[in-house]
Design brief:
Largest sheet of chain A: none
Radius of gyration of chain A: 23 Å
CATH topology of the largest domain in chain A: Na+/H+ antiporter like fold
Oligomer: homodimer
Helix content of chain A: over 70%
Number of domains of chain A: 2
Number of strands of chain A: 0
Number of helices of chain A: 18
Distance between the termini of chain A: 46 Å
CATH architecture of the largest domain in chain A: Up-down Bundle
Structural class of chain A: mainly alpha
Strand content of chain A: under 5%
CATH class of the largest domain in chain A: Mainly Alpha
Largest interface: A-B, 54 and 54 residues
Order of helices and strands of chain A: HHHHHHHHHHHHHHHHHH
């Protein structure tokens, strides 16, 4: 066998050349890793990375929209995987290594955390109590099915998953592993789903109210379960107490005093007709403090962001906040998260028939527990077939939310790289499934009435 | 003498306690530096830092506005110094060390570079050829005086500064040292000055056209001189060639093809009435590429940003871009720059009478070369005393621009920490001087006519 190192050809030499140019201040070793790393290289690499990241996310997102009628978020999820070791790193390891050197990982990580924290904060500002307004038997049934089935299936498959080495961190309790798997399966891409329903004018339809209620309920339960897992996992009892007491105190504080304390900000925006930089600065300070507190007690920054978001003033305030914060978060920060997640996605870890079997089992369980269970629950309580299918497809789509939870699992050492890769696949596939089915059920109708064309642009969730 | 380590008192113990809480995952050593540094600490610290940074910048900025009628930027410049070793680090070293651990410096650095790059990009988009419209003898005289006097004084004082150890990097040529000092003295806070003139409705007054023309001209010359210094300083001739050829090629490419290539983006915004995320993403990709290219060839990212900015479509496009990019840049990124700069500002380096003398000499030379020379040039060509004073004060104010140039000088190893600290003082003092003088000359008049109250809010430059 001829390897690159014994018989370098022009192609390899060219790649090495490119890699060297991309690391202007450090000669590359044969492993493609820079030998010298000056402080100013951080900004050089940062600018390069961001250019590559945004180009990839936008191009793949655009292709997904045009060719497969998928929302932008699907393309960006895939773009992250493409930039990682599963594709870019597999075929052009040297160039990939030069663009994403390990020294830069902390910067990318920080940007990614900032991005998802801010994203969950914005999700929180869009959270409304009337999402739970649908009180009929169907809504109750779908909500419960969407949480009971995932945890039932998690109880069923987790003991088996624990026997496969590398999926979970050694020493994790079966209880925590099961809860984590249940939360992963039960999660829905609630924000994406809310936007699709809103943009299609389905907010008052049976499908709309049902899915919003059930999605909000299931997600709330899943995140609470995750919080419990994070609070009790790993470190000693002192840490768990800090997490539980700290987390609950913070949540209670925001719930009882947050809205009242923040109300003046809303009035300032209403009076002025726009959000001044001073108000925006105060909001950002609150956000950073909330993220810090929930991160520091050992839960996670996203909870701080989300909980704070729910207490923010509504109306003009949120409208203005969205205008000022969302563009940057969606264009610059979230792609950093997708990439960071993709850099950790090692599809090569699913490299045997037995591992593939595990991956497929997880996928099947996830689809059965959300699509299947929610569809059946809707049918059983009297919804027609098309509505039930639409509900199932939307509830089954997990999008960015799933990436967030599994990244937390990986970062906190709950799951290993192989399970992470399998869950990334599950997240992408269940999200990809949603659009064609939903199109089939509702899209055509909407297009016939001239209401909409395909899937709305800029849907990131 | 009783030191904290031999006889810890309650105050010290409390501070240690605070510092420990702020580094939740690492027990602190007696030096206040965390012993363990887990990857997830990066986001925890990042959130904490940003909260502290934005609070400090906003509070000091607000105090500066209310008590001293200074623009926000002055407060933020001072806030950065306060957070650094000159004040916070001097009085509460342990707490400061816990909030700003050295491990986080690269993240802060990256955010800071991103911030100033984006800022200069926005300055570029506001750059208009008609800033050079004033062709009268006064404009010519003030422009030339504002560039000739600084370089003349630089030629005069640099040989002396080179004899003081530590001010410049050993081995720097007298030529480069002189050019750098000249550029530092000649620089004006052009963007701030343009905004003040625009907001006060002085754009068509003698003071307005004169200052805009002279400011734009002097800044253009200063940045070109800096580019030459960066291109020729340090590394071997190969690096200089790369910098010069790369820099000039990029600039020519943008000047000749940039506007034409980017024009479709402007039309898309005009047609849609707003900037879509796709257009914004393309703009950001161009920005990151431009910043990367100019950083990688060895000049600096800010040149990439600025040059690209000048080629961007105007009108609605810039308006929309500003709305989408500026809030984040001003509230989150620029404060990171002020802080990064402040962390490098060691006022304790100016710790002897001789060093203080050097600092005062630099300050005096700077004021004489800009305030003095521009005032005299304006008087000599027939402007009245008040107008000439106003011109002098505005031309003398250096603001954020000065911090950018001296941070580049420090980062590229042109100047040392003591000179950096002296130039920070010079930048702050000359900027602080501008408002009262300008107020005296123009502010009262404007207030009497009910046109404005004090200095406009949110002026960051």
């Amino acid at each position: 066998m001829i390897t690159a190192s014994t018989a370098p050809n022009i192609w390899d030499a060219t790649l090495h050349e490119i890699a060297t140019v991309l690391s202007p201040h450090g000669p590359l070793g044969p492993d493609g890793v820079t030998k010298l790393y000056a402080p100013s290289d951080f900004s050089i690499h940062f600018f390069l990375q961001l250019a590559v990241i945004i180009v990839t996310c936008r191009v793949v997102g655009w292709l997904g929209q045009k060719l497969l009628h998928q929302p932008q978020v699907v393309g960006e999820m895939i773009a992250g995987v493409i930039l990682g070791p599963s594709l870019f790193g597999l075929f052009l390891p040297e160039v990939q290594g030069a663009i994403f050197p390990k020294e830069m990982k902390n910067v990318l990580y920080t940007g990614a955390q900032f991005g998802v924290g801010l994203y969950m904060f914005m999700v929180g500002t869009g959270f409304r109590a009337d999402h739970f307004k649908s009180k009929g038997p169907s809504a109750m049934a779908v909500s419960l099915a969407g949480i009971a089935a995932p945890f039932a299936l998690a109880i069923l498959i987790t003991p088996w998953l624990l026997t496969v080495p590398g999926l979970f961190t050694p020493g994790i309790s079966r209880f925590n592993a099961t809860l984590f798997m249940g939360a992963c399966i039960a999660l829905t891409a609630f924000p994406m789903l809310a936007r699709i329903i809103h943009e299609r004018g389905l907010s008052n339809s049976s499908l709309g109210t049902l899915t919003l209620t059930a999605g909000a309920f299931d997600d709330a339960v899943s995140w609470c379960v995750l919080a419990v897992v994070l609070a009790t996992f790993g470190a000693g009892p002192g840490v768990a107490v800090l997490a539980i007491v700290g987390g609950i105190s913070f949540a209670l504080f925001v719930i009882f005093f947050g809205a009242k304390l923040l109300a003046p900000l809303g009035r300032m925006v209403e009076e002025k007709g726009e959000m001044s930089y001073t108000v925006l600065a105060i909001v950002m300070i609150c956000f950073f403090l909330a993220a810090f507190v929930m991160d520091a007690v050992g839960i996670h920054a996203i909870f701080g962001g989300f909980i704070l978001g729910t207490a923010m003033p509504r109306g003009k305030f949120v409208e203005e906040l969205k205008k000022k914060v969302e563009p940057f978060a969606v264009i610059v920060l979230l792609p950093m998260f997708f990439t960071y997640s993709g850099l950790n996605t090692r599809m090569d870890m699913v490299n045997s028939w037995s591992m593939l079997l595990v991956a497929l089992a997880i996928l099947a369980a996830s689809v059965a527990a959300k699509f299947g269970a929610c569809y059946l629950a809707a049918r059983a309580t009297g919804e027609d077939n098309r509505t039930a299918l639409g509900i199932g497809a939307l509830m089954n789509s997990r999008g960015l939310m799933e990436l967030i939870i599994i990244n937390i699992g990986l970062q906190k050492g709950i799951i290993g790289l192989p399970l992470f890769a399998m869950l990334v696949m599950m997240a992408i596939i269940t999200t990809v499934m949603a659009s064609p089915i939903f199109e089939m059920v509702y899209g055509k109708k909407a297009r016939e009435s001239g209401e909409l064309d395909a899937v709305p642009d800029n849907t990131t969730a």
